[in-house]
């Protein structure tokens, strides 16, 4: 836009001056006039002078009007937090009032917008951004104005924490958290459970409170720019009854060492001992000890190892303590706990439960007279003994006429075999069992080195096994007489959860483990564990418990 001043001089009487500015605007009158050109360009201005008689004279001149760029104001500098929306207030003026304009904002973070004079924009990441507002008129002239937006980092926001706030001492508890960050930063989750344990990291963590008490746990969430947020919560760890791996209503005797600590870094597999009447420990046995947050064993001022709580306990009525106190500081005098009653499953109940779960209703029993049908070899077995049943409906056979002798090289599957009177004897070797129940109602069962899957053996008298047996899946050995015993050399095929050996005796148990085994041993009489192998499970005896030759126990919940 241009304002021009025009001035003219002429001679004569009573003259009239008329101006035509060549831009289609109204004409103006007067010797001196002002005129505003709305747009740039070249204009031919004509002055016409008339006298009183109507005579006129005209004269022209050329006026060049140059374009003028807009005047731009992007607005004031701003300071915000990341993730916050900024409102911009741009403005501009242009002398060329007929011009049209294009508007462009460059927000400095790779984003632009056009044709909006007062836009809004969200900055995700912290930093300092130079924002440019460019106004360009329709004649191509442009002006840029800038402002600075300072985006400060914002701390994360913890939106959710899940996990039990009341837990059992020694149990594994799982905690999870969800947090958001306005800047979409990478977040680090740090957990301090307030119990002196190591700091844990991750959105989901597992934790074990080894001691009972109330703890203040703190979750800290930190973004990649260093800003952090904390939230605390209280956790109550309730004391639980000790999970004893070895229990005896009488004495526990350990000879020639052994290991009851399992994985030293895992308190859940410690083989704790309850020996009501006391204990005798010969040799250097490895017992579970307390450890610091780095897994190092704790010692007292004299350098002796400090046992975990309930590592070796006795009842108030204990009578015998015989152990070397040079290695452990709190072994002697012993830790005294409440007296326990050890419950041993009843033989009759175990047998009935097995029959109820194995025999389908309405299944007929086949009678086999062993006295009239001697079984001397595998051919006799195939020809004379009743054929097997199916896995879901095993053959039920009642043996009369004496005991049952099973020849060697026999594969037996899907049977329930009950001998009324007499023993069940295995001759030779190479006996393979699958889904079999053997019952000697008034006798013993003498097993060989069987290979068995899902085998249940019930003998009112004794169960004897002289060879190395292997048991897969679920195996149950039970004897019913207080004068009987279970004496065997065997082990589970693996120590995985799929294999489990359960041994219950109304009398004694002598376990000559052929290899590492997984299972539970329960006896009304004494329990003796020979050989340098490991039992993953538990031992319970109303009689004495004796370990020989460095036998090991790892507590395992079955």
Automatic annotation (TrEMBL):
> What InterPro entries does this protein map onto?
Ig-like_fold, PKD/Chitinase_dom, PKD_dom, PKD_dom_sf
Q: Which SMART domains match?
A: PKD
Q: PROSITE patterns attached here?
A: PKD (PS50093)
Domain PKD: residue ranges: 1-65, 91-151, 183-237
Can you name this protein?
A: PKD domain-containing protein
């Amino acid at each position: 836009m241009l304002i021009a001043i025009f001035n003219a001089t002429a001679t004569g009487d009573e003259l009239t001056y008329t101006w035509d500015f060549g831009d289609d605007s109204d004409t103006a009158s007067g010797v001196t006039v002002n005129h505003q050109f709305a747009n740039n360009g070249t204009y031919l201005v004509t002055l016409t002078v008339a006298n009183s008689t109507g005579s006129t004279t005209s004269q022209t001149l050329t006026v060049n009007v140059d374009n003028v760029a807009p005047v731009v104001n992007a607005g004031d500098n701003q300071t915000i937090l990341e993730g916050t929306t900024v409102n911009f207030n741009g403005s501009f003026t242009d002398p060329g009032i007929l011009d049209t304009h294009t508007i462009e904002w460059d927000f400095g973070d790779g984003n632009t917008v056009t044709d909006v004079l007062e836009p809004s924009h969200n900055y995700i990441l912290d930093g300092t951004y130079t924002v440019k507002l460019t106004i360009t008129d329709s004649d191509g002239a442009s002006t840029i104005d800038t402002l600075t937006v300072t985006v400060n980092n914002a701390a994360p926001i913890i939106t959710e924490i899940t996990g039990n706030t009341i837990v059992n001492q020694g149990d594994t508890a799982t905690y999870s958290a969800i947090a958001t960050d306005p800047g979409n930063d990478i977040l680090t989750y740090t957990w301090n459970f307030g119990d002196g344990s190591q700091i844990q990291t991750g959105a989901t963590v597992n934790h074990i409170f080894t001691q009972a008490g109330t703890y203040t746990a703190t979750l800290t969430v930190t973004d990649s720019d260093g800003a952090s947020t904390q939230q605390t919560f209280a956790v109550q760890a309730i004391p639980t009854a000790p999970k004893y791996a070895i229990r005896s209503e009488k004495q526990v005797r350990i000879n020639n060492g052994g290991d009851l600590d399992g994985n030293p870094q895992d308190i859940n597999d410690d083989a704790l001992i309850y020996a009501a009447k006391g204990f005798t420990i010969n040799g250097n046995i490895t017992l579970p000890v307390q450890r610091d947050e780095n897994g190092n064993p704790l010692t007292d001022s004299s350098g002796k190892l400090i046992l975990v709580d309930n590592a070796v306990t006795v009842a108030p009525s204990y009578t015998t303590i015989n152990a070397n106190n040079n290695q452990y500081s709190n072994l002697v005098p012993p830790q005294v706990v409440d007296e326990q009653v050890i419950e041993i499953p009843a033989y009759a109940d175990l047998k009935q439960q097995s029959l109820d779960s194995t025999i389908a209703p309405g299944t007929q029993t086949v009678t086999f007279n062993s006295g009239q049908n001697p079984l001397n070899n595998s051919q006799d077995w195939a020809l004379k003994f009743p054929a097997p049943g199916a896995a879901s409906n095993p053959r039920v056979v009642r043996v009369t006429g004496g005991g049952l002798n099973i020849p060697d090289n026999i594969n037996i599957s899907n049977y329930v075999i009950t001998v009324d009177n007499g023993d069940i004897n295995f001759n030779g070797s190479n006996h393979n069992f699958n889904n079999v129940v053997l019952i000697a109602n008034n006798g013993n069962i003498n097993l060989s080195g069987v290979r068995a899957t899902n085998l249940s053996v019930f003998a009112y008298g004794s169960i004897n096994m002289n060879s190395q047996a292997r048991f897969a899946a679920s195996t149950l050995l039970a004897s019913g007489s207080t004068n009987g015993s279970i004496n065997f050399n065997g082990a589970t095929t693996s120590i995985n959860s799929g294999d489990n050996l359960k041994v219950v005796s109304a009398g004694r148990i002598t376990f000559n483990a052929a290899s590492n085994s997984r299972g539970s041993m329960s006896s009304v009489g004494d329990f003796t564990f020979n050989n340098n192998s490991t039992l993953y499970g538990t031992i319970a005896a109303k009689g004495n418990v004796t370990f020989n030759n460095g036998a090991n126990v790892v507590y395992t919940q079955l």
